Amino acid sequence: MSTVIKVENLSKRYYLSHQQRERFPTLRDAISRKTSEFGRRLLHPLRASSGQPLAGAENTEEFWALQDVSFEVKQGDRIGIIGRNGAGKSTLLKILSRITEPTSGKVSIKGRVASLLEVGTGFHPELTGRENIFLNGAILGMSKTEIRRKFDEIVDFAEVEKFLDTPVKRYSSGMYVRLAFAVAAHLEPEILIIDEVLAVGDFQFQRKCLGKMDEVGSQGRTVLFVSHNMAAIEYLCSKCLMLENGQVVSRGPVNEVVGTYLEKSVLNAQKSGMCQIEATYIKEIRVSGGGDLKGTFFMGEHFRAEIDVEGLSNLSGTQVSLSFVTAFGMRVFTLNTGMTCDYLDTERHQSETYILNIPSLQLVSGLYFIEISIAQKGIRRLEHFENVMSVEVVGKDVYGRGYKLNDHYGVVYVDGNWEVKNSQREQ
Question: CB-based burial of residue 204 (10 Å sphere; 0-12 exposed, 13-18 middle, 19+ buried)?
């Protein structure tokens, strides 16, 4: 098979600007700061466009998103790219999609590339769905005849026929992703690049997307797929790359690399029942059962999580969220503060502790990871941390009938019972 992607010593550097946090910034301060930045960009246009720090910029820090990354992809390969948040996965895909220029190194690509990286990429918000289909096809170098030939197929797959002549800026995120994926997958690219953006869609659509990517790969075209869902990676891909701190730390058959990733996730996750994070807002999480900090729970045991946060007093509509995730990346459940309490209407404080109580942890035995995040409802995610802590659930005869449930029976168990009645009717 011929090589379609060759990456040689690829590196990407960013400069992060740190400004002193102000407790009560004023409109005048914000206008003054933006005016100064605009003036510096006018004086140093080349430096600004290259990503180098501007003269007078406050506390800039050099950050390497990628460092000396090298690999080759053969025609027809289906490559999974995995790693924790911040490992460099999205930066790599942006460079391969020619959205971002590398700082150093070389990328050679042979063939037409279609990419779906994040909601909004490649679509013009003022154009309708119909117009964006033709626009994307033109960007891929396709003629109008070719696009028309695939048009009905794209619309059927995306399930947006009623909204085809509506500007996409009015689409929901799910509709946006459905149409964007349908365009990327159906316009016959030689190379299809897909980021975690599929997580926006519903479960049924995710299954359709995986099936379509499997079909694309079986036709001899190349697929690069980034996901935190290890089951999806193993289903779709034959080979895998694992990134860590901007470097390739493992490559090879998908089952071997995924196994290495899961082992590292277990080692990196805290098992003591307490994890200090020291981020901007989230400072610490503690989990306990029966009053004791611990990382091992029996099925059905009481679970309590306490999350210490700071600095939310000036932010409106904040929600703290906790999720349980399986070792293969499947989210079991999520509970956020907006679901179960009316804290949004109360006065905020500089330091707060958010407490989640689950009277009965109804998970089957196995290893799970905790994710925590803070978001402003409907606006943005402020912080998100995955695999902050591992929780082991130990089997127990919850039904009192000799069964100790494991993942063969599913992920959760229910409080239910069977009964049998004689179906013979009285004569």
Answer: exposed
